[in-house]
Design brief:
Keywords: ATP-binding, Cell membrane, Membrane, Nucleotide-binding, Transport. InterPro entries: AAA+_ATPase (IPR003593), ABC_Ni/Peptide_Import (IPR050388), ABC_transporter-like_ATP-bd (IPR003439), ABC_transporter-like_CS (IPR017871), Oligopep_ABC_C (IPR013563), P-loop_NTPase (IPR027417). Its main location: membrane. It comes from Acrocarpospora corrugata. This is ABC transporter domain-containing protein. There is one protein chain. The strands form two sheets. Strands 6-7-8-3-9-10 form a six-stranded mixed beta sheet, sandwiched between helices. The chain has a four-stranded antiparallel beta sheet with strand order 2-1-4-5, with helices on one face. The protein has a domain of 73 residues. The radius of gyration is 19 Å and the shape is globular. It is built from eleven helices and ten strands. The longest helix has 18 residues. The protein is of the alpha/beta class. Helix 4 crosses helix 5 and helix 4 runs parallel beside helix 7.
Length: 275
């Protein structure tokens, strides 16, 4: 890829353990262009979320190595102050659990506008933009609900709030960590549709983290399949689904229940061990 917005090379992440450092990300490579949607896919515990957190340097106890370049600047070597300026402004993050990600004692409006206010945008202008964005994301009576608290919103509405926080500063890259977890199918479809629209309108790249192969098929352009903290297969989604090369990818696809399939046969399970 000649014009990658995000280029990750040999990314490794280790965390302290009782017997010494434990490496959980092993030399991950990936590229992501502007306007592209890339999925990190694999089982729970495969290293997807840890890879995303390493890109953003969110875990202070992690030891990171390799290169994570955003428009050519290595994020792993940026001073902490400059890295904080990247988060929110250049890279937005949608957390997996919107209720846990939101401050229960602050209004959702205050939380939505903070990425703008801390960068010097006047509060009135930030509020106006926040209300417009919340309405755009499908929250009815956005002006009034702007002063409500997280517990007053449903799961799907809280997910919209978290997306608003992540995109209000017009980031170049959005990292969405399991954005449809615990949502019903109808709300899942609407959230993914919103991400599609935002990507097209803003030429924003999306790094989607998910274990749901159905979502990957309907949303992403390319996919990186991860297992045990390693990227075992990378390529266009259509190619991976049509002719997976790695045995783990084939096992993941075989484990997906299919409508109209032979329900008398046991589901395929993925064996432990190996790479």
């Amino acid at each position: 890829m000649t014009s990658a917005l995000l280029s990750v090379r040999d990314l490794r992440a280790s965390y302290p353990g009782p017997a010494g450092p434990v490496q959980v990300v092993h030399g991950v490579d990936l590229d992501l262009a502007r306007g592209e949607k890339l999925a990190l896919v694999g089982e729970s515990g495969s290293g997807k979320s840890v890879t995303a957190r390493a890109i953003l340097r969110l875990d202070t106890d992690a030891t990171l190595s390799g290169r994570v370049e955003l428009d050519g600047a290595d994020l792993l070597t940026l001073p902490p102050r400059r890295m904080r300026a990247v988060r929110g402004a250049r890279i937005g993050l949608v957390f997996q659990d919107p209720l846990a990600a939101l401050n229960p004692v602050m209004t959702i409006g205050w939380q939505i506008t903070q990425p703008l206010v801390i960068r010097g945008v006047p509060k009135k202008a930030a509020r106006r933009r926040g209300v417009e964005l919340l309405a755009r994301l499908g929250v009815r009576d956005a002006e009034r609900r702007f002063d409500d608290y997280p517990h007053q919103f449903s799961g799907g509405m809280r997910q919209r709030v978290v997306i608003a926080i992540a995109v209000i500063a017009d980031p170049d890259l959005l990292i969405a960590d399991e954005p449809t977890t615990s949502l019903d199918v109808r709300v899942q479809a609407r959230v993914l549709e919103l991400l599609h629209e935002l990507t097209d309108e803003r030429d924003m790249a999306v790094l989607l983290i998910t274990h749901d192969l159905g979502i990957v098929a309907g949303f992403a352009d390319r996919a990186v399949v991860m297992r045990h903290g390693r990227a075992v297969e990378t390529g266009p989604v259509d190619d991976i689904y049509r002719s997976p090369r790695h045995e783990y990818t084939r096992a993941l696809l075989a484990a997906v229940p299919r409508i109209g399939g032979d329900h008398t046969r046991p589901l395929v399970t993925i064996k432990e061990g190996g790479q």
